[in-house]
């Protein structure tokens, strides 16, 4: 079954506005110290180790997680909206398996025109 990844934020923002980004990663976060009560076998460790966030391809947030993080972790951080573009969150686990969630944020200037991440000046 595919694990759920969620990314939530204000989809339209004014230029310079501080935006709250909220993420959720459905994951058991097995610490590797718990035993099966019937067999005594230790469940193997499988946690999300690294979380990175990019805004228009530029790294804006990075976290290293350890076994103390609860299952289905929620993460909140803030960015300053300067230009419209892609927000991308990557979760990487112990086995280097990556999952992603991507979304587009639209940034408007004082004239309510979209601020695009492309510079046309020569």
Characterize the largest beta sheet: strand count, sense, and whether it forms a barrel.
Answer: 5 strands, mixed
Main β-sheet, spatial strand arrangement: 2-8-7-4-5
How large is the share of residues in beta strands? over 45%
Element-level helix/strand string: EEEEEEEE
Question: Any chance you could write out the topology, listing elements then pairs?
Answer:
Blueprint: E1 5-8, E2 12-14, E3 18-25, E4 48-55, E5 58-64, E6 74-80, E7 85-93, E8 98-108
Parallel strand pairs: 2-8
Antiparallel strand pairs: 1-3, 3-6, 4-5, 4-7, 7-8
Description:
- By secondary structure, the chain is mainly beta.
- The chain has one domain: Immunoglobulins (Immunoglobulin-like).
- It is built from no helices and 8 strands.
- It has strands at 5-8, 12-14, 18-25, 48-55, 58-64, 74-80, 85-93, 98-108.
- The strands form 2 sheets. Strands 2-8-7-4-5 form a 5-stranded mixed β-sheet, with no helix packed on it. A 3-stranded antiparallel β-sheet has the order 1-3-6, with no helix packed on it.
- Strand 7 (85-93) and strand 8 (98-108) form a beta hairpin.
- It is elongated and about 65 Å long.
- It starts with a strand and ends in a 14-residue tail after the last strand.
- The model has no long low-confidence stretch (mean pLDDT 92).
């Amino acid at each position: 079954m595919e694990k759920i990844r969620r990314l939530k934020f204000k989809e339209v923002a004014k230029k310079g506005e501080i935006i709250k980004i909220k993420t959720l990663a459905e994951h058991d976060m097995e610490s590797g110290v718990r035993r099966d009560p019937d067999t005594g076998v230790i469940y193997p460790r499988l946690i999300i180790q690294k979380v990175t966030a990019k805004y228009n391809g530029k790294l804006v947030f990075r976290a290293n997680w350890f076994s103390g993080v609860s299952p289905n972790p929620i993460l909140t951080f803030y960015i300053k909206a300067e230009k419209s573009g892609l927000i991308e969150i990557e979760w990487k686990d112990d086995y280097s398996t990556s999952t992603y969630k991507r979304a587009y944020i639209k940034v408007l200037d004082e004239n309510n025109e979209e601020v695009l991440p492309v510079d046309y000046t020569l």
